[in-house]
Amino acid sequence: MHTLSILLALALPLTLALNEPRILGGQAALPGQYNATALVLVATSAKQTTVCGGTLISSRAVLTAAHCVQSLLGDNYEPEQFTVGVGQLSSEGFNLTHPYFVDKTIAHPSYSADIVSNDIGLILLNSSVPANVSTPMKIIKGYDWGARLVATGYGQTTNQKGSLATQLMAVELRLGNVTHCKSLNPHWKQDTQMCTDGTVGRDTCNADSGGPLMGQYNDAGDWGLVGVTSYGEEGKASSGGNMCGTEGGAGFYTYAAYYADWIAQNAGLERDKILVVNSTTVHPNATLMAEASEGSTVLAVASESLTSAAAAGPASGIAAVVAAAVHIAMCLALA
């Protein structure tokens, strides 16, 4: 087992411009697609901002990773340190067109940074996100190993130093089995976490923390949230250096449905209205496909690559959320 679990938040100095797409092995999401994905910025100091992702689960609640709302010392960041963007995609860089500010943040009380468990948190906004900007995502219960899912985020697309994306990226991933997950992290718990199968070159990476791992929960193709991006483990054959997408490695995700009661209670929501049971009849090894429909924007996910489907309707997307431009400093939070 690799000795370091890589928490996938990323700290950035506020200096240079943003110019590269991110997430390993994926493609840019189409305008308006996966618009429940949030971009979360935390001003951790006067010169540094931590970048994470999140998922809008109600008009005022964003689900994210606990390590995105809490420092390594165990202190919650203050609400005024946060800026959140949802539902507006910009290819011109992270210019703040509609910021959402934060009323309160909550990390799970049993979160452990030492073994990276219960890595889930909430960001409660001080204003509502309009329905025409973003559609909140339901939480899915009932996915098993081998299932094909999609992760989105603004994290790295390579293991080289670079800049954050100016648009949302999406990648297809497959869930790993118990043996694979346990071999990489003996602290892994089957009821609260899931991991990917270690497909080379496909992964979430630095700055994707807290973002969604999504699946379809019915045969109509409706999308919901399965996991929250948490950390990564390198494969045994890796040369080290905190690499993402290595052979035999895996991304690890907090299983959101396990925490449905906690989420509902702390977000002021009804559990039955945010949780759905997976009822898809598609075999888990089948190619995950979303069919285009009038007035919608979708992505077709092939077994080996993401392919863009034809889309109609107005362009919108995920928010660019930094008033100043930023440049990556590879300052990783390590468990």
From TrEMBL:
<keyword id="KW-1015">Disulfide bond</keyword>
<feature type="domain" description="Peptidase S1">
    <location>
        <begin position="23"/>
        <end position="268"/>
    </location>
</feature>
<keyword id="KW-0645">Protease</keyword>
<keyword id="KW-0732">Signal</keyword>
<dbReference type="InterPro" id="IPR009003">
    <property type="entry name" value="Peptidase_S1_PA"/>
</dbReference>
<dbReference type="GO" id="GO:0004252">
    <property type="term" value="F:serine-type endopeptidase activity"/>
</dbReference>
<feature type="signal peptide">
    <location>
        <begin position="1"/>
        <end position="17"/>
    </location>
</feature>
<dbReference type="InterPro" id="IPR050430">
    <property type="entry name" value="Peptidase_S1"/>
</dbReference>
<dbReference type="InterPro" id="IPR018114">
    <property type="entry name" value="TRYPSIN_HIS"/>
</dbReference>
<dbReference type="InterPro" id="IPR001254">
    <property type="entry name" value="Trypsin_dom"/>
</dbReference>
<keyword id="KW-0378">Hydrolase</keyword>
<dbReference type="GO" id="GO:0006508">
    <property type="term" value="P:proteolysis"/>
</dbReference>
<comment type="similarity">
    <text>Belongs to the peptidase S1 family.</text>
</comment>
<dbReference type="InterPro" id="IPR001314">
    <property type="entry name" value="Peptidase_S1A"/>
</dbReference>
<dbReference type="Pfam" id="PF00089">
    <property type="entry name" value="Trypsin"/>
</dbReference>
<protein>
    <submittedName>
        <fullName>Trypsin-like serine protease</fullName>
    </submittedName>
</protein>
<dbReference type="InterPro" id="IPR043504">
    <property type="entry name" value="Peptidase_S1_PA_chymotrypsin"/>
</dbReference>
